[in-house]
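Lab notebook page, bench 4
Experiment: in silico fold of construct C2
Operator: M.H.
Input chain length: 191 residues
Purpose: comparison with the prior construct
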Amino acid sequence: SPRVMMTNQHVLPTADRAERARAEFDLRIDGAMQMHSGVPFAFRPDLFYASDKALDVAFVAVAAESIRGGRRLTEFGHHRLFAAPRKIEPGDAITIIQHPRGEPRKIALRENRLLAFRDDDRLLYGSDTASGASGAPAFSDDFQVVALHRAAYLLYSERRRFESGGILVVGPSAAYTAYIERVLPSLGEES
């Protein structure tokens, strides 16, 4: 629906939480390195809110007009969800459009690949996403939504599933992996 936003259930776990939150559209830095302030829209869980904790997904209605500036939600477009299975195959490119920690839009593209299907509900992919990117859509090469990003959340919400097998962290640089080594202890990790 053009008026419904999809995100993670752990981001908007209840209609009450959604009512107090907002969505910002078009928060970005352009090619000339100029910051474009986002356009804030209120959520309308009184019109529609649904969530599934097991799938970590929530759907919430968005107001038709922005909180300030009189912008229409329809100006920003939307991605229609298609129920067709296997819209992407292992080895295919995957693109993540994210606003980590509420920062301006960042796009992870081209070097990201679907690695495997974990089951009917989960994909395993390699991507350079930033911390706080939960709820970001993952797209196939033809920009069909194929997943909802939630990896870091899974590592901590389902900790027991990963304790015995461990997690391999592969980073883009030595500085990145050194940072991860310093941060993990503060999150209760030993190695």
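Observations: The chain has a mean pLDDT of 77. The two ends are 44 Å apart (CA to CA).
Next step: discuss at group meeting.
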